[in-house]
Write a structure and sequence with these properties.
Elements (H helix, E strand, L loop, with lengths): L4 H8 L2 E7 L10 E6 L5 E9 L2 E11 L8 E7 L2 H15 L5
Helix pairs in contact: 1-2
Length: about 100
C-alpha cells in the first residue's frame, strides 16, 4: 500500500470528511478547503493550490474554519509530495496550539 502525501496530514490531523468549495458553487472537486480535526476542538482548513502550469508546485493555505479572525498561513513554491504535508502540518500545529474555543 502506497501512502500519498495527504495521508501524512490525515495521520496527524484527521480529515473529518467535510470539504468546502474554494469558490462558491464550484463543481471542481479538487478546488476545496479540506477540514481537519484539531485536538483543541478547533477545525483547521487546508487547501493546496497549483502554481500556474507547474503540476509539481503548490501554494499551501491553512486557516481555522468558521473563524473570521483566524490568521491565514500561506507558503508558496512548495514541491508536491511530502513537502506539502510537512508545511500543512506545521501550519496545523500552530492552530492546534491555540486554546480551546
Amino acid at each position: 500500500m502506497t501512502i500519498g502525501p495527504a495521508s501524512l496530514v490525515h495521520a496527524r490531523y484527521p480529515h473529518n470528511g467535510v470539504k468546502h468549495p474554494l469558490v462558491p458553487d464550484s463543481s471542481d472537486d479538487y478546488a476545496n478547503w479540506w477540514e481537519h480535526v484539531l485536538p483543541n476542538g478547533r477545525i483547521g482548513a487546508a487547501v493546496w493550490l497549483y502554481e500556474g502550469s507547474d503540476k509539481m508546485r503548490r501554494t499551501i493555505i491553512v486557516r481555522e474554519w468558521d473563524n473570521p479572525d483566524s490568521v491565514v498561513h500561506v507558503q508558496g513554491n512548495v514541491r508536491l509530495g511530502a513537502q506539502c504535508s510537512h508545511v500543512t502540518n506545521r501550519f496545523l500545529d500552530i492552530l492546534a496550539a491555540l486554546p480551546r474555543p
